Amino acid sequence: MSDAAQYLVTGLTLGSIYALVALGFVTVFSVTGVINFAQGEFVMLGAMLAAQFVQVGAPLPLAALLAVAGAALVGALVFEVGLRPARGASELAMIIITIGASTAIRGAALLAWGTDPRPLAAFTPGPPIELAGAAVVRQSLWVLGATAAVLVALHLFFSTTAMGRALRACAVNAVAARLVGISPRHTGLAAFVLSGAVGAVAGVVLAPLSYATYDMGLMLGLKGFVGAVLGGMANPSGAVAGGLALGLLEAFGTPISSAYKDAAAFIVLILAMLLRPGGLFGRGLGRGSL
Amino acid sequence: MSPAQPVLRLEALSAGYGGLEVLHGVDLVVQRNEVVALLGANGAGKSTLLAASSGLLRPRRGRVWLDGAEVTGLPAERLVRLGLAHVPERRQVFATMTVLENLLLGAHHRLGREPRAAIQTDLAAMVQVFPRLGERSRQLAGTLSGGEQQMLAIARGLMSRPLVLLLDEPSLGLAPLVARDIFQAVAALPARGCAVLLVEQNARAALQVAARGYVLELGRIAAEGPTDALANDARVSAAYLGRRG
């Protein structure tokens, strides 16, 4: 029983990170139609920048804020420098550009920080908290809390602000959005800034649990992508559910074989693509065909 | 701005898609506060003409003038700020957003530039013109009937405070009584300071609402003039009104 509780906590923690990454994918995809494979690098930048700023003496809240702002800025650059000049190009070309951007960001991180993992202290020091037979690492609570806070903030942004409304309009009907005066350039930029910031939040809260390394974004990005696909790619609540489901699957799969933990995500991805290409929840994009 | 300045003028406008040119050098004028009908068979280029005028499609040759200023090649999201609203075919409402959100999106470019009160006043005016929208303001647009969606699409276009509204097939798929309501609302637009370029399959209804008309055939203007003259033109009535002789 306590094993199950332990896996549950671990799964929800991991799953929260995946959910945030998946939300970044969904935000960019619904607004611009682009699958942004640089999404994982925003998580890496959040973790690395936060560790770096704390190391040079910034207090944690300031370091976190700067890290999120930095990743949002890189998100803006990916859109303005990488994608906007290529507007009108095929979806495949856009995806290749984001893969290129991801490689470039990872390379820049390698040059700047090297291959050594960087530590970031847990936000609140102290021993794990005993909860229903599980030992809950305090940082896990920060991860869950930050994820909940981001979800509430995104919900408020999309439902109550004019910019949020414009982004949703763009996702629902891009042509009609232009006809009411919403510029695809502005909404595309906003989507990338937003997904950069959300990814970085995941990185900042994750760093104390698993050192920050220059190449951590690749796997996290792919896991988040699996979450987004499970959720139907254009469905934010689906993406959160997909990310959480993947985290739980990995955690509960640990006793079977922790060596194949990462493989599980890709088996799920392949199954989802084959059986439910529109996502697990509700109507999606329909069955793919060759 | 002289009073004779047309609100929309197309000058030798050509446009198309890929290797296909659909519109070949069209001249067309819409004067301030008038309804102009654009008739033509399927594939004549009516929707292409609207798209090339509103900036959804970049014209290949020719010019577009809006209220005396040349706007050729400006994208749709800019033209709506300058006073041109395009209500496309099949309504294109934001289906998963509420009626109220759709209307507010219509005024998107005015947010932050005009006092909220001005936008609220226009919202109230739209509800007066289309009371059904007021009753259903919290409902998702996709759940409205076809006629209500058309009302919403027109109202959303009007929320941008246009000088001219390009309206594509508003009666498509609507019951005759519902279509009549829509045409009545369109006929009242010039009194609100909004001219209309009306594309319509139902030529009889369009000629009743409009003062002048154009007939588009294979991407060229084949006939133009006051609507009563067009209605009596033997060729026009045979092709579009279903009369013989």
Describe the protein.
- The complex is a heterodimer of chains A (290) and B (245).
- By secondary structure, chain A is an all-alpha fold.
- Chain A has helices at 2-32, 39-55, 60-83, 91-113, 138-160, 162-172, 174-179, 184-206, 216-230, 236-253, 261-275; strands at residues 129-131, 134-136.
- Chain A has one domain (2-275): ABC transporter involved in vitamin B12 uptake, BtuC.
- Chain A has a two-stranded antiparallel ribbon.
- In chain A, helix 1 packs across helix 6 (162-172), helix 2 (39-55) crosses helix 8 (184-206) and helix 10 packs across helix 11.
- Chain A is globular, with a radius of gyration of 19 Å.
- Chain B has helices at 46-54, 76-82, 99-106, 116-129, 131-135, 146-158, 176-187, 203-209, 227-232, 234-240, and strands spanning 8-17, 20-30, 35-40, 61-66, 69-70, 84-87, 164-168, 195-199, 212-217, 220-226.
- Chain B has a domain at 8-92 and 160-240: Rossmann fold (3-Layer(aba) Sandwich).
- Helix content of chain B is 36%, strand content 25%.
- By secondary structure, chain B is an alpha/beta fold.
- Chains A and B meet through helix 6 and helix 7 of A and helix 2, strand 6 and helix 3 of B.
